[in-house]
Design goal:
The structure is a single chain. The chain has 3 domains: about 110 residues, 2-Layer Sandwich (Beta-Lactamase); about 110 residues, Beta-Lactamase, CATH 3.30.450.20; about 160 residues, Alpha-Beta Plaits, CATH 3.30.70. Helix content is about 40%, strand content about 25%. The protein is built from 14 helices and 15 strands. A hairpin with a 5-residue loop joins β3 and β4. α12 crosses α13. The longest helix is centred in the middle third of the chain and has 18 residues. InterPro entries: Biofilm_reg_signaling, GGDEF_dom, Nucleotide_cyclase, PAC, PAS, PAS-assoc_C, PAS-like_dom_sf, PAS_4.
Amino acid sequence: MQTSTPTLHQLVFEHLPDAVYLIDPQTSNILDCNAAALQQVGLPRKEVVQHSVLSLQKDVLGIEHWASIAQAIRQAQGQFVFIGSHRHHSGAEVPVEVATSALVHEGCEYFVSVARDISRRLALEQDLNNRDVQLRYALTEASDGLWDWNLPTNEVFFSPQLKRMLGYGPHEMQPTLETWATNVHPDDASRVRRALQEHIKGLRERYEAEYRLRNRNGHYLWVHDRGRVCERDAQGQPTRVVGMVQNITDRKHAEQALQMQASYDALTGLLNRRECEHILQQQLQLCQQQNLPLGLCLFDLDHFKDINDRFGHQAGDEVLRKVAREIQAQVRATDSLFRWGGEEFLLVSAGAPCGHVLRCAQRLRMRLEELDWPEVPGLKGITCSFGVAMFPEHGQQVDELFLAADSALYRAKAQGRNRVELAVLA
C-alpha cells in the first residue's frame, strides 16, 4: 500500500515551532495536533488525539468551565488569549500562552489553539525581578532599556527593552561588550569609548554620551547612554558598571532640522554648533596648508544647573547672554567664538601659539569670575572651567582636537573647577 505524499500545508503544520491543536468545541476533544504539541506534553499521539483538553490543560476545571471558555472564544474578536499550564507526562507543568480562534469548515465548527511554551520568558522575568535595587531603579527610570557590564568577565546583560529597541528578540544579542561596541557608529566610537574609559578610571563622575547605535536592520538610532560604576573589588577597582539607554532619535532629528534653519544661536547671538563644525574644518585645513598652529578652547559654566534651579531658567538665559557678550568683547577679531550647546562655548584661535591661547583662556576665566550680576539679584558670581587643545600637538583632525579639549575640560572640573587645563600629549 502506497502512502500519500504530504501536502505543503501538512508539512508546515508539522514543522511549526509552537504547539497547535484542532479541538471540537462541543466535547473539548483534541481532533489533531502537530509534532510540537506532542513534544510539549511528552506524550505519543494516541494519548493526545481524541482525548479531552481537560486532561492536558491544568487551568480548565471541568466541562462546565470549558463551555464558558468556548463561549468566550466564539465572542472574541480575533483570538482569545490566556496564560495557563499544560500537564507534562513527567508530572511537571509547562507554562503556556494559548491563543485560540474559532473557524467553520464545511458546516462544522472547530477551535484552533496555538500554545507557546513561555518557560524561558517567565524565567527571564523572574531573573529581572530578582536583580538588585539598582537595576530595578534603572528599569523604572529608563523605558528604553538598560545594560549591566561585568568588567572581569567582559559579559554584558542587555535588558529585553534594549533588545526590543534595536529590533532583536529576547534571546538574541550575545551578552558581550563586543556586541555593543561593533554597533556604535564609526564616527562616534572613539569619543564614546574615551568617555566610558575616563569614567572607569575616575576622571569623570559618570559615563554619559549621545551617539548613533546600529539596529538589527542596519539603520542607526540616536541614543542617550549613561552609566556609573556600582561595584568595586577589595582593592577599589571597578568590577561592575550599570547603565541606561534612551532612544533620542526623534529629538535628534528635530534638533538637526532646527539647526539647519540658521547659523546663529537664537539666545546668545553667537555662531552655532553646526556653523562651528563647518568653520573649524576650514580653519584647520588652512593651518595645515600654511604650517600654522591652531588653538581649541572648550569651556563651560560651573554649576550652571544650580543657577537654573535657584533663580529660574529666565535668569539662566540672561547669564548665558551676558557671558557670551563678555567673551566676545575679550577675544581677537580673528578668533571664532561659538555656543557649542547648553552652557558650553568653544573658542577657535587660528595661527595662535599655545602660550597665547592659554593666556587668553586665563584672562577669560578671571574676567568671568569678576563679573557682577545686578541682572540676577542674589547671584554672587559665576566661574568657568576651560580645556585647551592645540594643533598639531594634540591632534591632526577636528575630532581628535575636540576630544583632547573635552578631556582637558573634564580634568579641570575634576580638579576643582574654575581653572584652565591643557590637553595631554597623545
